Amino acid sequence: MRHWTYGLSGNRPPQSEAEWLSPDAEQVRAALGDGAVTWAVEVGRDIAMRISEKIPALADEVNAMVAIRRATTSTALRALIMVAGLGESEDSLVSAEVDEIARDFARRGMELDDLLRTIRVGYAVLAAAFLDAATLLLPPTESSAELRRISVLLFEVHDDFTAGAASAFIEEQSAWAAGVSAARFDLVNKILGAEDIDRAHAEGVLGYPLTGPHAALVAWSGPHSTRDLRTVVDAVMRQWGAPSASLVLPVGLQTVWAWGTVVPGSSQKRDTLPTFDDAFVVVGQVGSGVEGFRRSHAEAKAVERLIRLRPGQIPCTVAHEHVALEVLLLADPDAARQFASRLLGPLAQDEPRMEDLRLTLRRYLDLDHSLAKVAALEHISKNTVTYRVHKALDLCGHAGETTTDLRAALRIHEWLRGGRLASS
């Protein structure tokens, strides 16, 4: 009789899952099928979501949450191998992904208690997922014994899992605390947190003047990239004029924060910024003094969150000055989606005809209602522009004189569906 885990399946339609999969996925796929892999990916997602809810310090660190999801998916796959009896008796839940997350917590200046709490939160979700699945797939006459077996098995490996992660954390913390980077990172976090600092002392530790004016940059790469992200900083900063000084800090997994001191009036026109095949770069607006240092970084982080909302995750370089309105409109993504859906109605449907109507309407509104300019831009007649605009307005039920809300809804919808970036 086949093991009950052959009946596992996911709740979502099939999609690319390569970003979350560890080498263990192929063992599970070969033995239990695609459904079991999808189930494990969804359990990994659920664990990561619960961690973000329970550990607020991690929720805003998007790159860390991506890495955590890879680790939680790896743990779900390894636990599935154990429960299904596919591995050896000495197999462990600790994986390279879990080890790296533990080290990342140390690099971020977090405490061991933060790591242990994350493990407790995640382990509860993992255990519940297995117990719920077994209850659903097994007949009542068999489920009690299997539920007990799963509980004992997960309990037995819990200590080794926690000890392995804690050991990696402590080892990395010791190395990190001994370095200059730790002092700089701690000091930068104090500045960003608006704590009182001795500016002269801070400039000595950082090797960077805090008087400004500054432009802040955040860069990150995908899990398989080998790029040294420090190499992208100068190329991008030169668009604001050659920086007279720069500060570059590695932050956790495959991320750097950077600041450059720019010379007023030396910047060039920035309609197009340099892009990289395997790196994302976002830049805040220029600001002066400690407050400008802090604000420019906050703007760069806001653009990072905005980029993460887009489908596809294609590497790009985006400046806050090019997407400042989108940053405001999408500060609350769920509310923005509801707003756009309510305003656009059927016009928001994902089909070519609606896309044409939205594009013509958006250009018509952006070009001061000029039929001639839209017709020339789209290579169609003015009558066709008139028809498309009226049709689009009818579909979204717009009858008022002001179009401010409608223009905002179109901008939100365009961003969330992955429309063209203004500067990449």
Automatic annotation (TrEMBL):
<protein>
    <submittedName>
        <fullName>Helix-turn-helix domain-containing protein</fullName>
    </submittedName>
</protein>
<dbReference type="Pfam" id="PF14361">
    <property type="entry name" value="RsbRD_N"/>
</dbReference>
<dbReference type="InterPro" id="IPR041522">
    <property type="entry name" value="CdaR_GGDEF"/>
</dbReference>
<dbReference type="Pfam" id="PF17853">
    <property type="entry name" value="GGDEF_2"/>
</dbReference>
<dbReference type="InterPro" id="IPR042070">
    <property type="entry name" value="PucR_C-HTH_sf"/>
</dbReference>
<dbReference type="InterPro" id="IPR051448">
    <property type="entry name" value="CdaR-like_regulators"/>
</dbReference>
<feature type="domain" description="CdaR GGDEF-like">
    <location>
        <begin position="198"/>
        <end position="304"/>
    </location>
</feature>
<dbReference type="InterPro" id="IPR025751">
    <property type="entry name" value="RsbRD_N_dom"/>
</dbReference>
<feature type="domain" description="RsbT co-antagonist protein RsbRD N-terminal">
    <location>
        <begin position="44"/>
        <end position="183"/>
    </location>
</feature>
